[in-house]
Amino acid sequence: MASRTWTINAVRIIEADFNRSADTHLIPLPLPALPGVHVYLKDESSHPTGSLKHRLARSLFLYALANGWIREGTTVVEASSGSTAVSEAYFAGLLGLPFVAVMPRATSPEKIAAIEFYGGRCHFVERAAQIYDAAVQLAAASSGHYMDQFTYAERATDWRGNNNIAESVFAQMALEPHAEPRYIVCAAGTGGTPATFTRYVRYRRHATEVVVADPEDSVFYDYYASGDCTLTCEGASRIEGIGRPRVEASFIRESIDAMVKVPDAASIAAIHWLQRAIGRRAGGSTGTILYGALPLLQRMAQAGESGSVVLVMCDGGERYAHSYYDDDWLRSSGLDPSPYLPRIGAFLERGVAQDWGVRECRR
Ligand SMILES: *Cc1c(COP(=O)(O)O)cnc(C)c1O
User: Fold this and answer.
1) pTM of the prediction?
2) I need a surface site. Which of 41, 50, 81, 303 has the fewest CB within 10 A?
3) Helix then strand then coil, % of the chain, to nearest 5
């Protein structure tokens, strides 16, 4: 009974965090050169822990509490490329639980600092593909709970509603000229966000298509095209938060309308263009999404089609000042945004059509 009392209080603490929070903004991106095409950014950087992973961490904790997997004193372990661990460290701190993040050594120092700020501990592995086994072992050694975002993201989030990201977007679009988006463009780390959007639009009987943009070092695009769930890749994605070295269970291939494969340097160019356009810095995955949306916007403009397109702004640029916004870092990482930047400007600012050089797949 004492343990039930603890669980009830833990759920209350998480619900109270939600109750104190405002919804994230939906920001219009003015594009006078593309009349009729209305683009919006769903700004997930304004969550208390700075990214869309705040939603996921809340859902994963509630799911684990409801299942009885987390109890008083349980050590919570997660395999993460960074953002999820930041948000989970925050919730573990609220509940007074020990938290260990298992991450690739290349994770940005800003994310490591954020995890430690919330009282979490970081455990590093050399290669991205090693995080899963290391997390299983650490959880077993501490009789703790491995949260396993890559398996549970798609089911921990209530895709029918409950103020998930999709329900929030549709509510905020209600008074816009084209309330039902033609496209929603997002990206996949766990695949939880795409799964929430794709299921929600079908359940609510919307015509909206959900398009997923994938970075270079990731198997999701090839898996989407081929259906081969045994695919793996060697390198870690340079676009933090998205792209995986193996097919994750939360990535629901059949639900996605189309995918686009975006060069990493183009993702960086897109966030640099966005900074000039709205005066705000976003993380790299927002650039992948923005660049991946360009062929869609161009086809709408060429067809004289008017409509709205919603892009997810997954996190802000604060955690990437020493990477995506640092010229020396970009040079040493072999990422040169300069060929892409003028083309993005030519199209979005002057309406001049471009060859985007991306692979697209529709199923
Ligand atoms: C996790 C993440 C994504 C992708 O979201 P999923 O729901 O895990 O697919 C995109 N951008 C950033 C910065 C992330 O951390």
Assistant:
1) 0.97
2) 303
3) 45, 15, 40
